[in-house]
Amino acid sequence: MEPMEIERKFLIYMPDTAALDAMDGEKWDIMQVYLTGTPEQGSRRIRRIRDRAGERWYYSEKIRLSHTTRIEREEQVSPEEAEAYLKLADPRKRPIEKKRWRIPYAGKLIEVDVFPFWEHQAVCEVELEREDEPFELPPWIRVFRDVTEDERHTNNHLAFRIPEEEVPHA
What is the pLDDT of residue 148? Predict the structure, then answer.
């Protein structure tokens, strides 16, 4: 059976990043580059993660099955392998950089992504076991709207075109 990623995604008001830093969780500095490939490979990327443990690289392929579900193949690779993958960067797409906070809440992992190109909004994701699984977001997440079905807010699309901010300054 293929590994699945089932997630819901929300456009949120910019959280207090100092408060996120103080929570029980992890903070990652992420840089990801989308790669050229074939439709059978789906969306391909190489990702660098930096955190307290150091630096790691991951290669992944995602094949969309629905708005919430994708087949996701991911493996950690060496820095040398990452360099080889970087040579396959899709020239139409820019690298995406973001800060990600991974915070456990109500039995789920809440991921908050803050991008340098937005001042007033961020993205929150929650991974689920099944598409219809109920979940609860923490009270400190102020949802502007559900963007699970909005392709403009996938990282793959952000690498191609960054939509204007939608969230008003609050």
Answer: 96
User: Rounded to whole angstroms, how far apart are CA atoms 162 and 115?
Assistant: 10
Tell whether 168 is covered by a domain. Answer: no
Any idea what the CATH number is for the domain that residue 14 is in?
A: 2.40.320.10
Task: Please identify every stretch of the chain with a pLDDT value under 70, giving residue numbers as ranges.
Answer: 1, 170
pTM score: 0.94
Q: Evaluate whether 44 touches 34 at the Cβ level (below 8 Å).
A: yes
Please give the residue range of the domain that contains residue 40: 4-160
Q: How many domains does the chain have?
A: 1
| Residue 170 pLDDT | 61
Terminal-residue alpha carbon distance, the chain = 45
What is the per-residue pLDDT for 101?
98
Alpha carbons 62 and 72: distance in angstroms, whole number: 5
Q: Which residue do the tokens 């109500």 mark?
A: 106
Largest Cα–Cα distance in the chain? 45
